[in-house]
Amino acid sequence: MRVDKFLWCVRKYKTRSLAADAVKKDKVKVNDEIVKPSREVRVGDKLSYKKEGVEFSLRVLDLPKSRMGAKLVPDYIEDLTPKEELDKQNFIQMMHKLNRPRGTGRPTKKERRDLDDFIS
User: What is the pTM of this model?
Assistant: First the structure.
């Protein structure tokens, strides 16, 4: 199976074209080698990909026939992402929530409490 199709099938990218673009931009490695979208993935290969500044790693356990539901994904991949990268992802998500566009006025009561919780 092609690497871009595999990443789309195991729900790591929303569309296959987004997965192919990530591979073309050298954000995806198979066994620590930068690859093209047409590269075949085999059982046992280690994939690493960068998404939103975080580098994720996974091992291929089986090849799916087509895109699947989220509950079936653990049957096909093993997550090898280090805890530091997951912490970085959580921090980035929190920053997106707390980032306010300029000129939107004062924060609401809920936003202020979230800011207080984040700062303290």
Answer: 0.76
